[in-house]
Amino acid sequence: MPRANDEAAEALEEYADLYALSGGDAFRVRSYRKAAKAIRGSTHDIAVGDVRVVPGVGQAIASKVEGLLAHGTFPQLEKLRDQVPEGVRELTRVPSLGPKTAVTLYREYGIDSPEALSEALREGRLDRAKGLGAKTRANLLKGVDAVSAQRGRVHIGVAMNLADAVVRSLRPGAERVSIAGSLRRMKDLIGGIDVLAVADESLLEMVLRQPYATEVISAESHKVAVRTRDGIQVDVRLVPAQAWGAALQCFTGSEDHNTELRRLAMEQGYTLSEHGLFAGDEPLPSSDEAEIYAQLGLQFIPPTMREGRGEVAAARRGELPMVIEVADLLGDLHSHTDLTDGVAPLGEMVAAAADRGYEYFAVTDHAPDLVMQRMTLEKARAQRDELKLMQDGYPDMVLLHGTELNIGPDGAVDWPEEVLREFDVCVASVHSHFAQDRDDMTRRFITACENPEVNVIGHPSTRKIGKRGPVDADWDEVFKAAARTGTAMEIDSFPDRSDLPDDLVRSAKYHGVKFAVDSDAHAVADLDFQRFGVGIAQRAWLTADDVVNTWPYERLCRFLSGRRR
Ligand SMILES: [Zn+2]
Ligand SMILES: [Zn+2]
To answer: Do 462 and 552 sit in the same domain of this protein?
Structure first.
């Protein structure tokens, strides 16, 4: 994805937020958000070509984007930034707190930050505020705490984008370069980016001159730390070539993993540190991570498994599972087009899927109960006909026509079974009534699993990182129902979802559940997101066999139609 597109999308999103906060017209807010999404998802590089060719970008938006590309900002954005305090904007990150409430809280109670909101709630100053009942206040307090806990951290999509840019900028001047830390372990929330390089010191001076380095935190001879515009800290560290493996191991593993590894080294009479693996004073080969794991008598442990959750013992016994790789995926079972809220037409999504060499690809636009998507059965059927016509052009890929259903508050979905039977794949997701209590929510998911036409439960926890916490359900009961009914749980790879998260994937696997690692792509570029979903799957020790979209088409077909008579 071209960097200028990301920058423009970010600025337009911020503008839309501020515009909403200042009481702006909801229709225009939506058109800014839509344009931001279209620009972010477009393969057309707006730094070199006209932004107007992106669908949904009219004159007014184009001139703002051009201002941004020329001067780094545009006047309307600056004006709103002055009017709305930063803290009020942060308020809208609290789940269930919309722009209207944020502005009211600011104007009537002087609440200008999440901290101020938390204080006011705890002191009872909002007990008589209009529209804030006891339940809402309790939810807000929970939300504020969640936001505070996430402060300074970003989801993996933001972090990986930034890390890719850093690595790209270093590669020409470095003999070796790699990300390390929690990002290399593919955690869903990232507090900072660690990069290691084998290079001479001039590389570090170059880091300080990069556009992403907006603030220098520290600069030493072997390490620099800078802060980026998103507030993320990036550390770049030089390591000697002969200790590359040891350094990479040390700066990648979690504390628990590294402690176990060092203890194991000690038991064998070695010492292990970032400087290398040593027998007394004598250095052992440490230029590659693999050498270190091998020397310690362990199977190689993939970075995503290095959390101190039993992987060292398993590797010692030679019982480490072969975790799924991106290359194992044969298709994608969840994607959208511009028929609903995607930005690319059907033909472009299908062509992009074919470019990836998929054996099958499912288009699953939203269903009618998500009213704002304006879907109808007629439209769905027309799309199916269109897809059928396209099939001839793709002899090596099966085009599946699916739908993303809405699981209603009682567990029912949009259409009756006989209509659902027309679809090749039914993903069913919760898109409303997030605050249901645990029992109702659990029953809701179980009812959806018991629907014989539902194949996959989409983004099950329904969290949106930084915006909305997970719903409350008895997941053990839900997973038992999924295993019993042969319903797959999704690992939605969209990085602000990352849903299911790895801990829930683990427990679902324990109950015998199968998974679908899907992109939930709303644009061509989003198809790449599956790498994040694979990261989650690896962190939960899933093998390819646990994931239905690694299966050959015939086997997948049996799974999809298995419960129909
Ligand atoms: Zn959805
Ligand atoms: Zn979706």
So the answer is: yes
Residues 309 and 333 in one domain: no
Per-residue pLDDT tens over the stretch 108-130: 888 988 888 988 998 889 988 88
Residues 258 and 99: their CA atoms lie apart, in Å, by 44
- Domain shared by 556 and 483, yes or no: yes
Distance CA 44, CA 50 (A): 9
The number of folded domains in the chain is 5
Dump the DSSP string for 113-154.
SHHHHHHHHHTTTTTT-TT--HHHHHHHHHHHHHHHHHTT-E
pLDDT at 494 over 70: yes
Which CATH number do you get for residue 122?
A: 1.10.150.20
The average pLDDT across 380-406 equals: 98
Residue type, 434: F
Closest by Cα among 92, 87, 101 to 132: 101
In a domain, 416, yes or no: yes
341 CA to centre of own chain: 18
The answer to the question of residue 78 being in a domain is: no
Which chain residues have CB less than 5 Å from ligand 2, an ion?
A: 404, 520
**Token pair 């009812």 is at which residue?**
447
Co-location of 404 and 492 in the same domain: yes
Q: Is 277 exposed, middle or buried (0-12, 13-18, 19+ CB in 10 A)?
A: buried
What average pLDDT does this structure show over 281-309? Answer: 96
Using the mean position of ligand 2's atoms as its centre, give its distance from the Cα of residue 123 in Å. Answer: 40
- Could you tell me the distance, in angstroms and rounded to a whole number, from the CA of residue 460 to the centre of ligand 2? 11
563, 541 Cβ separation under 8 angstroms: no
Distance 499 CA to ligand 2 centre (A): 12
Q: What's the pLDDT tens digit per position in 452-471?
A: 999 999 999 999 987 788 99
Given a contact cutoff of 8 angstroms between Cβ atoms, the answer to whether 515 and 491 are in contact is yes
Of 286, 317, 348, the last residue of a domain is: 317
Ligand 1 centroid distance, CA of 431 (Å)? 6
Residue-number span of the structural domain to which 128 is assigned: 85-151
CA angle at residue 386 from 381 to 389, to 5 degrees?
Answer: 130
Query: Do 397 and 544 lie in a common domain?
Result: yes
> How far are the Cα atoms of 96, 179, 407, 440, 503 from residue 433, in angstroms, in the given order?
11, 40, 10, 11, 24
More confident residue, 18 or 367: 367
User: 36 pLDDT band (50/70/90 cuts)?
Assistant: very high
How far, in Å, is the centroid of ligand 2 from the Cα of 289?
38
Enter the tokens of residue 318.
């030679």
pLDDT-derived band of residue 563, with 50, 70 and 90 as boundaries? low
pLDDT digits 0-9 by tens, 313-339: 999 999 999 999 999 999 999 999 999
Averaged over 55-65, what is the pLDDT? 90
**Residues 33 and 52 placed together within one structural domain of the fold:** yes
State in Å: Cα 207 to ligand 1 middle.
Answer: 39
